[in-house]
Amino acid sequence: MALIVQKYGGSSVADAASIKRVAKRVAEAKRAGHDVVVVVSAMGDTTDELIDLANQVTPLPPQREMDILLTAGERISMSLLAMAIHNLGVDAKSFTGQQAGVITDESYGKARIIDVSPSRIKDTVARGEVAIVAGFQGVNPTTNDVTTLGRGGSDTTAVALAAALKADVCEIYTDVDGVFSADPRIVPTARKLDRISYDEMLEMAASGAKVLVLRCVEYARRYDVPVHVRSSFSTRTGTLVTNEALVTNEEGEQMEQPIIAGVAHDRSEAKITVVGVPDVPGKAARIFEVVAGAGVNIDMIVQNVSAASTGLTDISFTLPATDGAHATSALTEHQPDIGFTALQYDDTIGKLSLIGAGMRSHPGVSARLFSALSEANINIEMISTSEIRISVVTRADSLDDAVRAVHTAFELDSTEDQAVVYGGTGR
Amino acid sequence: MALIVQKYGGSSVADAASIKRVAKRVAEAKRAGHDVVVVVSAMGDTTDELIDLANQVTPLPPQREMDILLTAGERISMSLLAMAIHNLGVDAKSFTGQQAGVITDESYGKARIIDVSPSRIKDTVARGEVAIVAGFQGVNPTTNDVTTLGRGGSDTTAVALAAALKADVCEIYTDVDGVFSADPRIVPTARKLDRISYDEMLEMAASGAKVLVLRCVEYARRYDVPVHVRSSFSTRTGTLVTNEALVTNEEGEQMEQPIIAGVAHDRSEAKITVVGVPDVPGKAARIFEVVAGAGVNIDMIVQNVSAASTGLTDISFTLPATDGAHATSALTEHQPDIGFTALQYDDTIGKLSLIGAGMRSHPGVSARLFSALSEANINIEMISTSEIRISVVTRADSLDDAVRAVHTAFELDSTEDQAVVYGGTGR
Q: Which of A318, A338, A409, B273 lies most in the core, judged by the most C-beta atoms within 10 Å?
């Protein structure tokens, strides 16, 4: 008998029929003898609909009120799910983030969890009942007001609760079969990964893989919570995100790390080039101070070699395209004191990232990457690396070709019949 | 400067445009120098839609979960209203029933308020902000779970909050201009009442007038909260529900009580006749024990004179038609021990009630009532009275005629141009 935290996203509870399907799944886990705690997101598009209502009322909703509004979404889904489970003869009770003891700071709209004290959840489980917990929300103890955790917040709620309850596993149910070696919409031969380490998953999430948000993986790594990413539409095993040392085979022996876990891609970034910057100490620092001061996070940076004749250089960096207007206006405002000639803005870039813990011990990965891209006639505009990741910026319209070329070059293509992987039938 | 509690019902906040209209009204009261606390219901049909969702999931939703579900409705309307007020440059914060200190018992679905400790509301008002409070909901302090107050619960929240805050007035905004001498849909010449006493309003509410629910008026009477029932679609004065001794004219002199306040009607009752009951002591008591044991409240009772030849009598009583099936099956089950011959069920009855505090000191009211009905050829089937009310049961299809005849006989018809009363223009 295990203690399992299950998390179901909005698409898994989009309507009454879906809620009943999830209820059946929860009841089966309970009847199999497990203790079950369920974290649930708002139904389908509820959150977007509530945001739309707020925008109809005011262009600038106060964030405290926005959080109160949005938390209504999980209140609806959690109580309906508790009812549906109860209807199957299994006792279930629902709890808000506050009732479940999810304590956050006071950053409305993007609050961080600072503590989880799930005494009511423990009591509920101890009584043999299923506890349903609203994802995405917590309480700011200073004012006793509700907060929301921002995008992907329900995953974070699930992992934080699993850590606090010392759960055996945190199952994240989604609409795909797990974590793939690349996005299957771009690479039809992408393989579902059976296991991936926290570090690799972190790099994947930071590089554009959508299946789990970064902070959820960070939380799982910090508290060593095994996360099982799987489909709510099938019963097959998904991907286990776990400690690297625990990547073992079915006989429990530690397996050799595969060199490469996967290829991630990201189309959400843009590139700003600051043209004609005087090549004197402190100018680059000044540029990034201005950008940081505007609250914009930058990703990759390239400084060109300066032309000896002019003493001027160009500095390029990437940033979320949604921050583009913000960053360019901040830089333009400081053009006099920075002293650059012009700004170029380019949102037609793509980023490819190759991720694998095995890179640490296997030289030659970057050479193989660059040669694969070169053979596919794809130009590399920027490069950045971490210990277990290499990222390159390409033209946006070459990105899909680049991902496919790299996926093949590193022998990641599946040899299995993909119809089985995507057909929704068990195996 | 006064402290005003304003309550807006679901039809007043049915969509974003309505919410903005209410926000304007609240902001005007605030700018006029008043302290304002607003109680708000769920938007339009939200509550019905949530109930419908629950019924899609299970035929028997656990009441605790139902209450959690339904309270999402006011969470949405209250935060949107706070945003809309904020957008007009007036600071506003929204609070759940729990945050507003509305403490109830644990009767989920029909909880009773046992205490109101609105410290957060007082602080908010003291800071010069408008406090928006979710109607219809509270918290059961034993378990820290939310509860709902049942039908008309938001009115009760408003009056309870006004009592706890010692507000100068509790304004109940609705879609009619106030309390009328009869339902204007039946009696086009019905007059809007400027004032009515708590006792009369209680009898009106208990006799089928829909404008305020019974428990709200009971609460107002107990704590002596002046209630101003008025339209959210106009600025004209509505009806002040207040202590009888305070019914004064515009110069502040106590006015002579009008004999009759109004005529109420009720189509929601049914009549059960228990035929052939042995006319021996204890049989009537046994019948009403059985009915009460089934959780059914009865209203009027008539026992016929027994026929000397048989020693049998008939007992008729009225009850809410929604409890009809329940009561008849309970009685049928006990037919052997009660020993009656048959049950007759009749849901084609109507009840007319004439209400007026002046009845106490004016004899002849019932004679005038019966003669008016007789002249209109309307048969009276049952009669009951209180100190300030006379009710009669008629055929359902004579009820409208009966209401009109009585309204005219007691000279309640308005002589004003009704277009002014209903036209939506100020006066």
A: A318
Using a CB–CB cutoff of 8 Å, tell me whether A109 touches chain B.
no
CB A276 within 8 A of CB A312: yes
Which of B71, B80, B87, B144 would you mutate first to test chain A, the one with the most A CBs within 10 A? B80
Q: What does DSSP assign to residue B128? A: T
Mind telling me how many Å the CA of A393 is from chain B's nearest CA? 42
Q: A with B: how many residue pairs have Cβ under 8 Å apart?
A: 112
The token pair that represents A231 in the structure block: 């489909």
* A59 in contact with B, Cβ within 8 Å: yes
Q: Is residue A105 part of a domain?
A: yes
Whole-angstrom Cα distance, residue A207 to residue A389?
9
Closest approach of B326 to chain A, Cα-based (Å): 24
What does the block give as tokens for B299?
């209203």
A59, A76, A144 member nearest B69 (Cβ): A76
CATH number for position A222: 3.40.1160.10
In sequence order, which residues have a C-beta less than 8 Å from that of residue A93 and are 6 or more positions away? A82, A124, A129, A130, A131, A132, B64, B65
**Amino acid B315: pLDDT:** 92
- What does the alpha-carbon distance between residue A57 and residue A49 come to, in Å, rounded to a whole number? 13
Contact of B84 with chain A, judged by CB distance below 8 Å, is answered with: yes
Domain that holds residue A86: 3-252
Q: 3-state class of B261 per DSSP?
A: coil
Residue B421 in this model has a pLDDT that exceeds 80:
no
CA distance B231 to B211: 11
Does B23 share its domain with B151? Answer: yes
Is residue A373 within 8 angstroms of chain B, CB to CB? no
- Which of A58, A71, A87 has the CB atom closest to B58's CB atom? A87
State the DSSP code for A248.
Answer: B
Same structural domain, B167 and B264: no
Backbone angles phi, psi at A376, to 5 degrees: -90, 10
Dihedrals φ, ψ of A194, to 5°? -75, -35
When CB atoms are compared, the residue of B19, B59, B72 closest to A75 is B72
The total number of structural domains in chain B stands at 2
* Alpha-carbon distance values, B195 to B207, B239, B244 (Å): 18, 5, 9
Q: Residue B198 CB: number of other CB atoms within 10 A?
A: 22
Q: What are A113's two structure tokens? A: 């969890």
Question: If we measure between CA atoms, which residue out of A399, A346, A347 comes closest to residue A376?
Answer: A399
Q: Which amino acid is at A265?
A: H
Residue A6 structure tokens: 């299950």
Q: In this structure, what CATH number is given to the domain that contains residue B272?
A: 3.30.2130.10
* pLDDT tens column, A208-224: 998 899 999 999 999 99
CA proximity to B51, closest of B65, B70, B64: B70
Do both B408 and B306 map to the same domain? yes
Partners of A93 on chain B (C-beta within 8 Å) are 64-65
DSSP percent split of chain A into helix, strand, coil, nearest 5? 40, 25, 35
Query: Could you say which of B53, B75, B144 has the minimum Cβ distance to residue A68?
Result: B75
Nearest CA in chain A to B23: A57
Whether the per-residue pLDDT at B363 is higher than 50: the answer is yes
Look at A58 and B84 and tell me if their CB atoms are within 8 Å: yes
B289-307 in b/e form (b: 16+ CB < 10 A) is: ebbeebebebbbebeeeee
How distant is the Cα of A27 from the closest Cα of chain B, in angstroms?
A: 15
> In the block, which residue shows the tokens 């305070």?
B246
Determine contact: A99 vs chain B, CB below 8 A: yes
Q: Indicate if the pLDDT at residue B36 is higher than 90.
A: yes
Quote the pTM value.
0.86
Give start and end residues of each alpha helix (H) in A58-197.
Answer: 63-87, 119-126, 153-165
pLDDT at B86: 97
> Facing residues of A389 across strands?
A355, A386
Please check whether residues B157 and B279 belong to one and the same domain. Answer: no
